[in-house]
Amino acid sequence: MNYRHGYHAGNFADVLKHTALCELLRLLLSKDKKLFVLDTHAGAGGYDLGGALAGRTGEAEAGIARLAAAPRAGMPAAVVRYLAAVAAYDRKFGPAAAGGGPRRYPGSPRLVRAALRPGDRFVACELHPGDALALKREFAGDRAVEVRQADGYQALKATLPPPERRGLVLIDPPFEAADEFERLARAVRHGLRRFATGCYAIWYPIKDTAAVADFLGAIAAPRLLTLTLRLDGEGESGKLAACGLAVINPPWRFEEAMAEALPWIAGVLGGRATLVAPPASAPAPASGA
Prior knowledge:
- This protein is an alpha/beta fold.
- The chain has one domain: Rossmann fold, CATH 3.40.50.150.
- Helices cover 38% and strands 18% of the residues.
- An eight-stranded mixed sheet has the order 5-4-1-6-7-9-8-10, sandwiched between helices.
- Helix 7 packs parallel to helix 8 (180-194) and helix 8 (180-194) packs parallel to helix 9.
- The radius of gyration is 18 Å and the shape is globular.
- The two termini are 32 Å apart.
């Protein structure tokens, strides 16, 4: 994948990833203890869906635009909360057009920042120079957000374990390198050695099912929940049409929320979804999540 997130902002993969992210944040922040959040591949922060990058691909039309236009009757609560977070970001740029979808889309850093409480801490890393500069501008003067132009995999070593002892680590690599799955698995294993009780959310494309299976097996985490979303007509256009999110140490009730939301999302977007839960015997983390 030749990946800059601006080309794909608001697409079906973002819908999956960011619905889950909003729900993880809600559940983790329901406790009164401070939370640390690390976004290893943060992107530019926010995106103009009609701009040069997102407007060129139009992928948001089959993602967030379609979801935002869906009837609210019967909509799962997790989806309602996700759409509310997107709409709140979009309103910062002026009133929305009647009946229209969002014009601006919040990347993961904006969704994280909107959820944090005073005292929580957020480190957002982005290696691409242009996106890192945009991210710094997005959060200029915001002391709750530390933006680093850095390799996100190295940030795992530099920031874990956090002093807060409770954390959410979002890993959303560009998948430009041929060995990205191997690098990702090593990074996750290293993170777990340093911070075994943290909650990790790891996004990945599904183009080679054998490579995905090898990656999930290499993580070797007992409390691993996987969510996948596949669009109908997968592979016909040559574009990415299937992706997954691996969640390690999910908080209580996350699985329940996503089991309701994921099939509904798949139905609206025209696709199929699966959720694979950890074994019932898998031990819960001693702390963190």
